[in-house]
Automatic annotation (TrEMBL):
Coiled coil: none annotated. It comes from the Bacteria. This is Propionyl-CoA synthetase. Belongs to the ATP-dependent AMP-binding enzyme family. Transmembrane segments: none annotated. Residues 510-588 form the AMP-binding enzyme C-terminal domain. InterPro entries: ACAS_N, AMP-bd_C, AMP-bd_C_sf, AMP-binding_CS, AMP-dep_synth/lig_dom, ANL_N_sf. Residues 62-444 form the AMP-dependent synthetase/ligase domain. Pfam families: ACAS_N, AMP-binding, AMP-binding_C. Residues 3-57 form the Acetyl-coenzyme A synthetase N-terminal domain.
Amino acid sequence: MAYADLYARWKADPEAFWMNESRAIDWVRAPSRALFADRAPIYEWFADGLVNTCWNAVDRHVAAGRGSQIAIIHDSPVTGTVHKITYAELQDRVARLAGALAAKGIAKGDRVIIYMPMIPEALEAMLACARIGAIHSVVFGGFAAAELATRIDDAKPKAILAASCGIEPGRIVHYKPLLDGAIDLAAHKPDFCVIFQREQEVAQLVEGRDYAWHAFQYGVEPADCVPVEGNHPAYILYTSGTTGQPKGVVRHTGGHLVALNWSMRNIYGVDPGEVFWAASDVGWVVGHSYICYAPLIHGNTTIVFEGKPVGTPDAGTFWRVIQDHRVASFFTAPTAFRAIKRDDPEGRLVGGYDLSSLRTLYLAGERADPDTITWAQDKLGVPVIDHWWQTETGWAIAANPVGVELLPVKLGSPSVPMPGYDVQVLDEGGHPVPPGTLGAIAVKLPLPPGTLPTLWNAEERFLKSYLDHFPGYYETGDAGYIDDDGYLYIMARTDDVINVAGHRLSTGAMEEVLASHPDVAECAVVGVADALKGQVPLGFLCLNKGCDRPHADIVAECVKLVRERIGPVADFKKAVVVDRLPKTRSGKILRATMVKIADGETFKVPATIDDPAILDEIRAALAGLGLPAR
Ligand code: COA
Ligand code: AMP
């Protein structure tokens, strides 16, 4: 068995395994060893190597004579355009942007925030930062000004690169006013901003602070690649945690290059030159790893898709893109397939396209329900591979390693651990449990190359969030079990993170916003089941004594407040007013019980509940919202 041999080979000598894989990367100075454990449990990979990510993702392919290969295809049904960029053109565009940034004082280690829609310039901005050793932090366009401000204050960028607007079906997303608002809100101010003006909306520039994308680059000296240490941060990507303060996941340069390059052949089964498509957004980790870096590092063609699975113009868009660009390997979130299935249940549109180039479909970002997988398999006639990972890991913890060996697919399981990950299911005391037993999923330290070494400026929080609970392990925050064949099953989060349409969101962050409403005394947000999006947030509001305003008004204001503070992506549209929240005698809100009631699941009334009668009040309030739905 090729997979079993590979995994055993890694386990027998992780150092040799990763040193060997590191040879696929061009180093300015090769690392002397793979793992640096002197500060354990903080581990680093390839720390003393010297390398440049942009060189490996762009220049080396041009140097190898592949400059005329298409690097990026921008396929944008929302603007009705398709635009292709070769590796040689990409090199030129990135070197000029990097040169302009360097000319304005951006140097190795400086932070640059990128707030852009799905356009090639977003990838060029990321690569330009990598070229000069600047550390980028991409912020998803569906976040509101206040969320952007939080990230500005944490990352303290010298520059912000943005576009004038994004395009959502039926509306323009006004990026520039959002950016201006965020800079006003933030205590830290960037030295300058560079704005890519789109014809759908031309933004007003602030004199002396903002530069237009092209004028900014006029007449500058293109920048060469600056070698950085293997443990130099390539980027910071903020992700949701338990509180409103997002966690700044740090990615080191060397391990990132090695792991992503390894994954393209071994997990995604593609060869250099083939077309790889991840339909996600550059604002998420999937976009970082599999729209931008991995396909380019590996010499593939990547697709920047600016559209939705349905409605742009119809549920056949994905098939059109696969046909037009001869996509070999396709990656998206299960929600996208649920949306397509809802619009085209028989999969009639599939038949209208030539999908002969497609070999495999990959799903991640949320639990892939068996119905969706079966539907996709039936309609597309290719293996559908669920794989499990997180912003923190940057690449798959568990997958079906198609490029090594296609293992039998088990519905509901993202298959088996990848080399580098010693995955264990633990009980509360930190002891491994037998197969089939539910527990907290943890990974034995060290984590492999490409995963987070720490949180930005928050090492204590890193230790507390991930390493303290189970000493010697990384706590994933997911619960599940391993079956007798070693297949993993991911069942739920163990924290207050919910997953809405493949987007990771913090209920704690939403609660902080709701609590700021003047009429709200106490609140709770939980994630309830949703047929399309997997989960959606639902708010419970307890009002201040004496508040006699109409509940519908307060709910509407709360919905608006979350949209304004966190952004449309939070998808917070439902809330109910209740007299009290169910709590334990020690005052802990019984969120899991509220979820069970909303989802119509049977449950045992917790023995620690303060007053069981409250559960009937919750039931009645939810019935008013039509919950449970089934
Ligand atoms: N910029 C601004 N707003 C955005 C945005 C962006 N980049 N992305 C989403 N939004 C907005 C949407 O317009 C929507 O706003 P609305 O409340 O005014 O309708 C809101 O955020 C919620 O978006 P979403 O959850 O995506 O719902 P949707 O109804 O627009 O689309 C799907 C539903 C299933 C089509 C869509 O969620 C989808 O394509 N999901 C795939 C998931 C995915 O790619 N996940 C990435 C991780 S792998
Ligand atoms: P993110 O950091 O946004 O990628 O979200 C990571 C979380 O999404 C994980 O911790 C899981 O809870 C969930 N997730 C991602 N992929 C899967 C999957 N294949 N199956 C089940 N849950 C998943």
